[in-house]
Amino acid sequence: MIHSEMTDYRDNPYFNLFSKQKANQYTIGKSTYNQRIKKLNVLQRAVEVTYREHIKEALQKDLSKPVVETELSEIYQIVGDIKFTKTYLHQWMRKQKVKTPLSMLGASSYYLYESKGVCLIISPWNFPFNLTFGPLVSAIAAGNTVIIKPSEMTPHSSALMAKIIADVFKEDEVALVEGEVEASTQLLKLPFNHIFFTGSPNVGKIIMSAATKHLTSVTLELGGKSPTIIDKTANIDMAAKKIVWGKYLNAGQICVAPDYVLIDESIETDFINACKKWIKKFYSEQPENSRSFARIVTDKHFNRLKSHIENAKSLNAKFEVGGELDAESKYIAPTLVSHLKEDATLLQDEIFGPILPIVTYKNLNEAISYINAKERPLALYIYSKSKSNIKKVIAHTRAGGTCINNNVIHYANHNLPFGGTNNSGIGKSHGFFGFEAFSNKRAIVKQHTFGISEYLFPPYESVKEKLARLTVKWF
Ligand code: NAD
Fold it and tell me: Cβ(184) to ligand 1 under 6 A?
């Protein structure tokens, strides 16, 4: 039966699918711990066993992703997320008892994490499996029905995910819709109970404005320019090694990649030399032949990065390493650029590719002001041996997450909330925080006996005024 409030959406291509999930939402919502664990187990088996080789193949075709990176940044992340969720789900699903004030004597209180209902997950292309199945794990754990719209930029991964989802779930519980932007646009017209979006801040604004129509809650996992500070007390070689790894992993197409380096000017040359050494060690003298280095996802993104390089060259920036491109294979060499003018596009837009700009500072306050003049980042990294410098940077900046003397790895700790702030995102994901994002916290008060507050019901004789005053004073 079609509910009257749904008739507006009859022409929507996803109306039938949405209606099926809407009709099924309470059945899935009241699923038990054991039933949810069973679903997570089936998904785990699909990723870890049945489709593991297919996942590697799809990512090879879409991104030339090295197998080790697929194992660690896709399969391990999803399987790790499922294992973590299975360990704690019982605890998360329990009713959470809280205190009840004396003024409510005769009652007890608790809150529940109940499913939100029908959820939409829109995911990007850079870690297609991880960033689609990761939120899905949280949505299933919280007892939701889900429609997924993955990115059209990685078609082999998207087709494989469609197969996995159809294999593992019935469509009235979890379904995957493939398609371009138009598919998202149509889906966004439907009255979902929650939207979990991972992608760029610009599209995040489109998602949020579509959500206002139905006052749908949103989790927006966005990106932006994530700075890395290296102060003069830092271990330069260790910093260079970690930054070279964090920046050129997946050819820089990572939301938490160090976008640019802010370094004390007295150690710039040493840092550049150390980076040169590590780039050579990781990817050899000819990174274009290295099996450890990925490619740019599409021609559009290749051309976007190419124009950053051309812009930097036109402004006489110094290419310390790299700068070479090959359009046919969508290869961009691991690149290090210094002496950039502030209006260079590399210092304005999120780079999302294997190009690392280096900006120098004279004192730490200058570095902090530089960061705070830009949008709030998803990640901020600091390399330092000085406790007071580390403390100062954390206290005087805002970011979704921070690593001290490392980068990227905070993403992999499921005990931590993951997400941005303002332009880099709204809401958090991973582990409990992902479960929470897909849950409604329902407050419940249970009246057991006569409640003393009933003494204060109308009619309001003068004695009640006194009682009200006493309540304010003592309870
Ligand atoms: P994107 O915003 O272009 O696309 C993301 C998704 O939105 C895709 O599924 C796409 O089909 C859809 N989409 C695109 N335009 C749309 C529109 N006009 N209306 C509705 N839907 C639309 O992002 P991307 O290029 O896939 O990914 C790169 C961006 O994502 C970067 O900014 C990166 O920092 C960010 N990102 C963030 C995280 C995170 O966890 N915070 C993770 C990965 C990527």
Answer: yes
Detail the DSSP E strand segments found in 231-354.
260-264, 318-321, 325-326, 331-332, 335-338
* 475 CA → ligand 1 middle, Å: 50
Sheet with 107-115: list strands edge to edge. 96-98, 107-115, 439-447
Ligand 1 centroid vs 337 CA: distance in angstroms? 26
Report whether 280 contacts 322 (CB < 8 A): no
Using the mean position of ligand 1's atoms as its centre, give its distance from the Cα of residue 158 in Å: 14
Are residues 66 and 75 in contact, defined by beta-carbon separation less than 8 angstroms?
A: no
Probe ligand 1: pick from 77, 121, 127, 151, max atoms within 8 Å of CB?
Answer: 151
How many helices, marked H, and strands, marked E, lie in the chain? 16, 18
The single-letter code of the amino acid at 239 is: A
Q: Which residue has the higher pLDDT, 344 or 4?
A: 344
417: preceding bond cis by omega (within 30 degrees): no
CA distances from 27 to 30, 86, 190, 193 (A): 6, 21, 21, 16
Domains of the chain by start residue, with CATH: 4-222+426-441 (3.40.605.10), 227-419 (3.40.309.10)
Point out which residues pair with 237 in neighbouring strands: none
User: Once rounded to an integer, what is the mean pLDDT over residues 440-469?
Assistant: 91
Per annotation, catalytic residue among 69, 74, 173, 221: 221
- Burial group, residue 282, by CB count within 10 angstroms (0-12, 13-18, 19+): middle
Report the separation in Å between the CA atom of 199 and the middle of ligand 1, taken as the mean of its atom positions: 3
Q: pLDDT band for position 151 (50/70/90)? A: very high
Count of CB atoms within 10 A of residue 362's CB?
10
Residues 6+ apart with CB under 8 A from 289: none
Rg value, the chain, Cα: 26
pLDDT of residue 7: 72
Q: What tens digit of pLDDT does each residue of 133-148 get?
A: 999 999 999 999 999 9
What would the pLDDT profile of 16-37 be if each residue is shown by its tens digit?
999 999 999 999 999 999 999 9
Q: Which of 122, 133, 190, 200 to mutate to test the pocket of ligand 1 (most atoms within 8 A of CB)?
A: 200
Residue 223 in contact with ligand 1 by CB distance below 6 A = yes
pLDDT value at residue 475: 81
Atom number, ligand 1, closest to the C-alpha of residue 179: 11
CA 186, CA 298: separation in Å to the nearest integer? Answer: 24
Strand partners, 443: 111
The per-residue pLDDT for range 390-424, each reduced to its tens digit, is 999 999 999 999 999 999 999 999 999 999 999 99
Annotation marks residue 436 as catalytic: no
- Has 221 been annotated as catalytic? yes
